[in-house]
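**User:** My hope is that you can spare some time for a protein that puzzles me. As I understand it, each token names a local backbone shape. I would be glad if you read both lines and explained how they fit together. The protein I mean follows directly.
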Amino acid sequence: MDAFISTTENILSAIRYIVSINLGEEECLIGRHQGMRVKMWKADEKSLVSKVISISGGALAGFFLALTVNAVKYKMKVAIFHLYSSFLQRMRGKFVGTLRQSVMALSFNVFGIAAGTIVAFHLGLFDLAPWAVVIYPPLLSARGVIGGLLSGRLSTGLHLGTVQPRFIGNTKSFYLLFQAIVVLTFESSVAMSVFTGLFGSFLWGMTAADFVCILGVIIATMTLSLAITSPLTMIVSFLSFRHGLDPDIILYPVESTSSDILITVCYLLVLNLFFTFGSPGRYLIGFLSLVLLSTAAYAVTKNAREGEFTKTVEESFLTLVFVAFIVNVTGSVLGEIAKVVRGRREIYIVYPSTIDTIGDVGSVVGSTATTKLALGTLKSSFSDIRNHTAEIFGVWVASLIMFVAYSVLSFIIQGTFALPVFLRFLALLLSANVMAASFIIIIAYAVAILAYQKGLDPDNFVIPIESSLADTATTTSLLIALSLIG
């Protein structure tokens, strides 16, 4: 009888514990009975019946205990599944959000087709001097670097509250930033001219007179583009922020595309002044150069004691020197492409849009990373890139979509469409995208992390470096794809 009572108590304890698990009670009821007290044998029981009852009771108690363990395991699995599902939903939400905004932002690069079309139908102007085609990529890159620096600082400042979304009555940081941009525009113009002179002296025997011409053309072009694109960049940043959009995703793609169109028009205008209008045109070029020089000198004199101004100029100057060297490599590569694709207008038509798009990929990856670093939501380590994958793949997929669109538009503009030729051209562009985008994503993230670890402002480095390298990477990838696919 004692064995039967003990067995019954064990079974009831197991049942009550299962019920407590299912009801979600935090207190373990089985603890109230001081253990299961399963007794396989009782010393004072001799009968076979008592032993059988005791063994059977222990088996039943073990059965219910197994059910209890399975219930706990099931609840743990359900909890883990819900956590994993929640994580996937958040990642999918970030991916979809980044993809949607990236497609919207990168769609502005379609207007870069206009810049490429302008170049494609004015190739004769580039034949008037050997340096005319070579300095076109550096101009695109330099304007992109300056605009990227302005975009990155504006977007981060808007997030942190150090910049307000308005022109009048803005913060001191905003006005110091704009004056630093003026100085950096002049510095980048001079640096580009110097490196173009060095490359030109080795590649096509450039003379001192050619260097003076290049210096004047570059500074005049950058002056015109600064006067037009900088206010446009500020307007886009303020409007996007006011309407609840992320400037880190929207701003630079819009700015880079509009800058490409405007600087292409400015460059062709300056080339026409230089080659067509004789002395009056060259005097006007000299006047524009003096305007930028005097404005930059005034900004330096006025803000020499402002720490924020000097930090931006000093940190960005080293970047611009590096960029000036890299973009001249881009120009040299474009010169090689020009020899290969002479007469193939579809390459020139999509060229500005492709370099813009790859630069935008790096910009979105880098800008979102710098903002996360500033807000403390991203660790300054390379391994934490796994927490940035939604932004990375979102903008990359958007770039692939845009490359397909560029292929279609290029053939529509030319008024010819042959399916085999189109498919080959599409394969060429997508191959270039894979090579260039994968490279620039790693560069953008690495520069953001390294700059932050060194105590530097990542916004002074990420977009300037990645945009210039993006131009070189895209141009080189196009040359490789042309060699492989044709």
In short: The chain has a mean pLDDT of 78. The radius of gyration is 33 Å. Residues 86-484 form one domain.
